Structures are given as C-alpha cells and as structure tokens.
Amino acid sequence: MLRVEAWDVHGRLSALGVTEQGLSDAVRRGYLAYSNCTANHPPLIPAIWAWGETVRALREYLLPLGWTRSDEGNYSLVVNPSGETAIVVATGDEGTGRAEASPSTKAPKGPNTIYAIAANQLQLNLFVESPPFPAAAKPSDARDEKVTWFLLFHRATSEVRCELSLPSSIGTDRKIDGWRERILLGSIPLDSNFVEVTPPALPDITIDVKRKT
Amino acid sequence: MRDKGFNPSRLTLARKRRGLTMTRLAAVIGVELRSVSAYEKGDFRPDEDKLHKLAQALRFPEAFFSGDDLEELTPDSASFRALSKMTAAQRDTALGEGAIALLLTKWIEERFDLPLASLPDLSREVTPEAAADHVRRHWGLGELPIKNMVHLLEAKGVRVFSLAVDADSVDAFSMWKENTPFVFLNTRKSAERSRFDAAHELGHLVLHRHGAPQGQVAERDANAFASAFLMPRASVLARAPRFATVDHLIRLKQYWTVSVAALAYRLHTVGLLSDWHYRSLCIEIASRGYRGQEPNEAQRETSQVLAKVFAALREESMSKGSIADELCVPAEEIEQLVFGLALTGLTSTSGANGTRRRERPQLRVVSSPNREK
Fold first, then answer.
1. Mutate which of B116, B139, B230, B251 to disrupt the A interface (most A C-beta within 10 Å)?
2. Interface A-B: count of C-beta contacts within 8 A
3. Does the CB of B241 have a partner CB in chain A at under 8 Å?
4. Domain extents for chain A?
5. Do A207 and B304 touch (CB under 8 A)?
6. Using one digit for the tens of pLDDT, what is the confidence trace for B146-161?
7. Which of A114, B15, B18, B41 is 20 to 30 A from residue A185's alpha carbon, by CA?
8. Interface residues from chain A to B (CB-CB < 8 Å)
9. For residue B263, is it within any domain?
10. CATH number for B25
11. Which residue of A has its CA nearest to B158?
C-alpha cells in the first residue's frame, strides 16, 4: 500500500503517533550533520553522522511523547508506548520517496533487520511460502512482538527524499525488496552547491571633500 | 592654539591615553602621587625637569602639554560595546584616542569642507528593525546591500576613525560631539565584523543620541539594528536558503558582506531557521573556528575622507611630521586613527600622483602591516 496524498499520509502517521514534521525534522538534522563534514573527515563518517543524528533527533522528538529507546543487540530503535511499533532509521537507495519506484536499503542489512522483517511477517500474518532466512535466524526474542517501520532517507542532488515504510521481505542480497506499506513524506529541498553568489554591481560612493580657500 | 601655559587637561588626557593611573605615572617620573594629582587639578605646574619627564613617560611632545583645553571624553558620552569585559584603563585608552581624533577632526575641518551630518533622530522609533528601515528609506538605499559601510557613514557626515587598541577589549564606539557624529572601529577584526561594528555604532547614533537605554538593552538594540540594516528582511527572504548549511551560508554571506555567524543569526530572526537548526549552525560555526577567523574574508574598508584629505595635503607637500607637529602629538597617534593608510603615503617624497592613493589595492597593501601587530 502506497500513501502519497497529504490527507492519507497525515491520517496514517497520526494513527502511528507521529507527525510528518517530526519525522522530516529528524531527517533534516541528519542532513545538517552530514553537511558539517569536511574533506578531512574519513569518507565513511558523513553517512554515519547523518544516520546517527537522525536517530538522535527522532528519539529526542518521540521520547517526550512516551516512546522508549531500545539498542538491544546494537539495533537502534525507538519504540512506541504500547511496545507494538518500532521505528528504525536507514539510508535508502534512489527509489526512496518516489511513488513510481520501489526502494531498497542502500546497504545490505544484518541479522537484526532480518529478524525484524521476520517479525513483521509474523505480526502481520503474511503468508510466506519459504522464509528467506535460515531457520537459525528465526526470531525468538521479544522483538517478534512488534512491527518495525523504517524511516528511509536518501540524499539526492537537489533534495533529501524520505518515507516511513513497513518492510515485508528481504532478498538474498540482504537488501529489503518488499514493502507492505509505504508512507511518502515531503521531500526536503537543498541548495545547489554550484550557485554563484554575486552581490549586485553597485556604484561606489564618492564623497565630496573640498579644500577651503 | 599654543599659548605657553601648562594645561592640566592635556596631562590628564595623555595619561589616560597611555592607560596609566596617577599612582603609576607618579612612580614612573619619581614624584609623589599628590604632585601628579596637583598637576592635573591645576593646583601647581610641573617644573621644566618634571615636564620633560612627563613628556618622556607619556610619549607625547612637551608642546602637547600647553595649549587650548582639550575635551575630555567621559565614558557616558560614548557608546561602548564590550562594556562588561573592558577595564577602566582600556576604556580610557580608547577615549584618549577619541580625544585626539577630535583634535585631528578640528584641524581638518579648518582646512576642508566635509559632509554635514544627515542622520535621522530615531530615539522614538519602536523597534531597532523599524529604525533600520527608516534609515534605509531616509538615505534611499532600498533593499540593496551596503557596498561600503565606512564610505556610506562618511558620506552621511559621520567622521570615521580606526581604533588601534587590543581587539579583545574594545570593538568599536561612537559618540556625538555637538552636531558631529563619530565612529571608531577596531581594525583588527575581520572586514565583516568591522562592517557589523560600523552598522552597530550607526544604530547607537540614531537610536541613543539622547542616551536613553543603557547597557545590555542598548547593545541588543544596536545589534538588532545592525543586523536589519545590513541584511534587510525582504532581501533576506528573497535569497532564503532552501536548506541552510554552513557551507551554503559561506557562499551566501558574500551577498551582504557579513560574517557567517551574523547571517545565521539574521536567518533565525526573520524566521527562516528553526531553533534547533540555528543552534546546530552556531555550534558548527564555532567548532570550525569561524568566530575567530572569518572564512572567505572580504576586503577591508578604509576611510575615503581621510584618504582624500591626505592626498590633497600631499600635493601641498604637507608631511606626516608637519600635521603631527601642528597638533603637538606623536605621529603614531595620527597614524593609528587613519586606518594605517593615508599618512604612510605622506612620508614618500616621490611626487607620486595623489589619486593612486585612493585605489583599493594600494590601501590594502599599506594597511596590512597594521593588522598583523
């Protein structure tokens, strides 16, 4: 299911207990952290900071609303007050935020994501003919009690696109390849790096200084 | 100007200019404190030997100590920005420089016609932002950036001088002397900071001519005035960043020739940045050291009036020494007031053509050693 229209997006988000503003502010903060990196930072850092700052901002936004933070198994989530819904932050590919595309996570995901998606399948009673994960990876702990949504964001040249989406399957390349539901958030426009700022050509002021006679 | 009598007010000025207390001066010249105190009160005069010692200790020519009364500038007659972190001695040093600027201005005005003051009195204006708009309308500036703050002030009759004091103590100050406004700028700041200081002092001149709000309130008002004057709201809205990053602000600031910190502040004031966004930018600006070292610094502004005055005097073969001699002050005192530029040219004996002095690259080269002090 794809939600694009503003009324639909807002209605669904509010049922989940979040707002579009709150989510996109978290993504903005992540982008600002990304933009603060310089060529002297190790190349991996900007993306990590963007992710880390988005997680922090999301938690700073939701914890006062009764959500809790969970880093169990080093999987950084924010969990709603009933414990039934969690949000995880991930970088998406260029399909992120585009209705006509099906996005995937940018990087292959680890066992935590595989568990989370398995839990989603169980919680949502999705019919799965053959689970895409080995039996050993089957969820066995409390994580299977909740549904995990992904706050996906993708930095394009002139905007950051984002969506809050519920994954339902993950491919053998360990990238998410199926979504039960996608809620597209408004894209965040960026300034071009190539804008030349030139002050207008203004005349010089000429001050009259006259020698007294 | 020079009658032969010893003038106590001149001793006080010279002492304060050097940042000395009476006690310290007494110790330096080897007399009792009460002697110095008596000299300054005019109870009795230093003898020839003491006068010589005073002159040496204070690095002023003996002739300086006789002559007309000098106006002593008092702290409440001038606007001081960094009031809280300034010591009395630092303040007196700056005020002493101001007093010498008055001397120099008088000397120049006896010989040259300079623009008369054309500043609206806005002490009744409701907000600093409205006052800044008012001044822009009064001067017909529209929404355009200010190309050169010093030239603009000078064209509107403000006498602008440079301040050669420790940059951490005094940013700038301004005052009204009868109907003439004065602005003193510390030239050891970045060009952008100095432009902001100039606009800030303009704010004091139009908002606080009658000395109404004091201290923190006055400072906040002058800052808000400067911010709005240099970056008018509509012009900022028209160039609103889609997503403000520090790197983008570094490019954007060139439009108004302001510091990256001043631009971030203004974007927040006009409502283009949320609180957290502004806070993050501030942290990043500070962590990159931009508060101390402005990125992509603009070209420094200098006085056009002084450059023209000195160019004209040079054609009359008036030397640096002769102006200082006429004022009975050390040549360095004059040099510190004039952005380190104009008088240096006077020492050159080659008959170089005066207009060259006005070319920007010339001025910049001449002024740069001063910045490195």
1. B251
2. 90
3. yes
4. 2-189
5. yes
6. 999 999 999 999 999 9
7. A114
8. 25, 28-29, 31-33, 35-36, 57, 160, 188-191, 193, 195-200, 202, 204-205, 207-212
9. yes
10. 1.10.260.40
11. A207
What 3-state DSSP class applies to B181? strand
Residue from the list A202, A207, A212 with its beta carbon closest to the beta carbon of B154: A207
ipTM, two decimals, is: 0.76
Query: Over 60: is that where the pLDDT of B348 sits?
Result: no
Residue B177 lies in a domain: no
Q: How far is CA B193 from CA B159, B293, B354, in A?
A: 19, 10, 30
pTM of the model: 0.82
Domain end position, chosen among B65, B90, B110? B65
How many domains is chain B partitioned into structurally? 2
Asked if residue B310 is part of any domain, the answer here is no
Interchain proximity B245–A36, CB inside 8 Å: yes
Task: Find the domain containing B255 and state its range.
Answer: 233-287
CB contact under 8 A, A202 and B247: no
